[in-house]
Specification:
The complex is a heterodimer of chains A (about 325) and B (about 240).
Chain A: E1 2-7, E2 12-15, H1 35-44, E3 53-57, E4 62-65, E5 69-82, E6 85-86, E7 93-95, E8 99-116, E9 150-152, H2 157-168, E10 175-177, E11 194-198, H3 207-215, E12 218-220, E13 228-232, H4 235-238, E14 247-248, E15 253-255, E16 263-265, E17 272-273, E18 277-281, H5 286-290, E19 297-298, E20 300-302, H6 305-332
Helix pairs in contact in A: 1-6
Chain B: E1 8-11, E2 16-20, H1 27-43, E3 48-53, E4 57-62, H2 75-88, E5 100-105, H3 115-122, H4 126-135, E6 138-143, E7 150-153, E8 168-171, E9 175-179, E10 182-185, E11 190-192, E12 195-199, E13 220-225, H5 228-237
Parallel strand pairs in B: 5-13
Antiparallel strand pairs in B: 1-2, 2-4, 3-4, 6-7, 6-13, 7-10, 8-11, 9-10, 9-12
Classes of the chains: A alpha+beta (about 325), B alpha+beta (about 240).
Chain lengths: ~325, ~240
């Protein structure tokens, strides 16, 4: 079972939950920038959360489905169309053989996640299908999709599609979307501040710097990417002359180079770094941050560690409940 | 011998914690960090994704929802308790045997464009820079920044120079560079601010091997000067 790439979109890469277990060798984690939407898309088509999805950035691709498939799209609000008809997000859709699906520009948010039942069949590298662009490994040939690429779907896909597809459609042409849908467990596009816990370098910054960090609006610079979000604002209050001993970084670490322009480290972050970390974005708010685009403005707000972890546990529980309602949806079919 | 309580555990966000042994670059602290990391990896705690030793710290990345927790225990309490117990019974020295590895380096000006500048800063000739660099035994403190990229101690103190004021946008793969009393070898073509004094034909990141890197923390490294011709042969031979 294959999907042909007719137009690649701005930056479309295969990602899973990340390449773990090798950071001590300097191997970058990668993985979905918005792991929550990645998981929701997988749940909708009955996949394991570790299956790869296609991360579509701002402008989506055009894909030709050679065989019938069941797909779902979650994350940024991105139009998905076939033959002029709109395919709704956040619900599984059966796609007939030979159907061309075009993805538009994200109306809100930055990244949408396309899951196919059975998963993408890219060979794992160091235990993960995530694409690591600078190292050219993982995903589809270690790079973003190009026109003419042919993606394979997992070996157990046909059985899955037969079962799932029967529940929503039966061998018709084009597409049929399930009548039921789910809502994202988090309002990905809410304008609320991005919550952080104090970083290990919090005290390195004086009272003025800390106040400026929490009071300022930061613009996400155009130089931001999957590696890091570079922020503009409050640089004079945050500039410093500290040079620390390198240590591990995290997804969400807000490191501040001497020039005072913070960088939030994201999915493709380097494993270690020597800049002080003023704050750490909490896991529950990383999906919301990953949906912000260059040019947009964000603010930070502190939260204590225990409530931050409680939010993460709640989010995980919400995903489990969502998985149950998806199964109930599948069992009820489309009627 | 049991460990003295000369370490502390701090959160780094809500999904990582740091075992902190000190805040300086020191061979003894680094040995302790590697020993603790070995024990944490061996323990394979539920919910732990990665254990990352650096110069004088060990990071533990975890998933709060996947930890084993006692009734009513918060994820932080649970992970701190479990990690502290393992750190407390870690030996002070790593069990893994240090390996001795030779790394061929071509110190020609083409591969070491900063050799002259380093020589001038240190009051040496560029030939002396190369000779001194290859004359001592180095050792790998840690891997980081890029896959398989080592930071090595053991540099002759006469070669102590700061980083370049303006980093390069692209440093070629295999570049051997010095700064702040250490050596780094760029494993991928990346931006970089260290002083380039040579290049190795060896591949440091091997994504299809496990572990996926030539050098590991604790390895002892001897740099061996090679000619351009030998560099080219070795480079050809790895394809």
């Amino acid at each position: 079972m294959t999907i042909e790439v007719l137009r690649p979109g701005m930056l479309s890469t295969l990602q899973d939950r990340g390449r773990f277990g090798y950071q001590r060798y300097g191997v970058v984690v990668d993985g979905a920038m918005d792991e929550l939407s990645h998981r929701v898309a997988n749940l909708l088509v009955g996949n394991d959360p570790d299956e790869a999805t296609l991360e579509l950035t701002l402008q989506g691709p055009d894909l030709l489905f050679a065989q019938e498939c069941v797909i779902a799209l979650a994350g940024a609000a991105m139009e998905m169309k076939t033959q002029g008809a709109h395919i709704p997000m956040y619900r599984p859709a059966w796609i007939g053989a030979g159907t061309r699906v075009g993805f538009g520009t994200a109306r809100v948010g930055c990244r949408a996640y396309l899951a196919v039942a059975g998963g993408f069949a890219a060979a794992p590298v160091l235990g993960s299908r995530s694409t690591y662009l600078p190292g050219a490994i993982g995903g589809h040939e270690g790079r973003a999709l190009r026109r003419g690429d042919v993606l394979s779907i997992g070996a157990n896909a046909s059985e899955r599609v037969a079962t799932l597809g029967k529940a929503i459609a039966s061998g018709r042409r084009g597409f049929t979307a399930a009548r039921w849908f789910v809502a994202s467990p988090v309002d990905l596009h809410a304008a609320a501040p991005i919550r952080v816990v104090r970083g290990r370098g919090w005290k390195i910054f004086g009272a003025d710097g800390r106040r400026a960090f929490l009071a300022s609006e930061f613009r996400i610079s155009a130089q931001s990417d999957r590696m890091g979000y570079r922020l503009e604002g409050a640089e004079s209050a945050l500039a410093h002359r500290m040079d620390l001993v390198s240590e591990a970084t995290s997804f969400g670490s807000v490191q501040v180079p001497p020039d005072g322009r913070p960088i939030v480290l994201m999915a493709d972050r380097q494993t270690t770094g020597g800049y002080p970390k003023i704050a750490e974005v909490i896991g529950a708010d990383l999906p919301r941050l990953a949906q912000r685009r260059p040019g947009e403005v964000i603010r930070f707000e502190t939260i204590a560690l225990d409530p931050a972890q409680a939010l993460l546990l709640e989010q995980d529980a919400a995903l489990r409940r969502l998985g149950e309602s998806v199964r109930a949806g599948w069992n009820s079919g489309c009627e | 011998m049991a460990r003295e309580p000369d370490w502390r555990i701090e959160p780094q966000g809500d999904r990582c914690l740091m075992v902190v042994l000190g805040d300086r670059i020191d061979a003894e602290l680094n040995r302790q960090a590697r020993a603790i990391a070995e024990n944490l990896i061996r323990a394979a705690l539920s919910g732990v994704l990665d254990v990352v030793p650096a110069f004088s710290t060990v990071a533990v990345h975890y998933r709060p929802e996947a930890l084993e927790r006692a009734q009513g225990e918060t994820p932080w309490r649970a992970v701190e308790r479990q990690i502290a117990a393992i750190v407390a019974r870690s030996p002070v020295k790593p069990a893994n045997k240090d390996r001795a590895i030779e790394v061929p380096v071509c110190y020609d000006a083409e591969f070491g464009p900063d050799c002259d500048e380093v020589a001038a800063q240190c009051g040496l000739t560029s030939q002396e820079v190369a000779r001194l660099h290859a004359s001592t035994e180095h050792f790998v403190y840690m891997l980081g920044f890029a896959p398989g990229q080592p930071y090595l101690g053991g540099l002759d103190s006469r070669l102590t120079v700061p980083r370049r004021t303006t980093p390069r946008v692209r440093v070629p793969q295999g570049s051997v560079a010095i700064a702040r009393g250490m050596t780094a070898i760029y494993s991928l073509e990346t931006p970089g601010g260290w002083n380039l004094i040579g290049r190795t034909p060896l591949r440091l990141f091997m994504p299809h091997s496990d572990p996926p890197c030539l050098l590991r923390a604790g390895d002892r490294v001897q740099f061996v000067p090679v000619s351009r011709a030998r560099f080219a042969r070795l480079l050809g031979g790895r394809q």
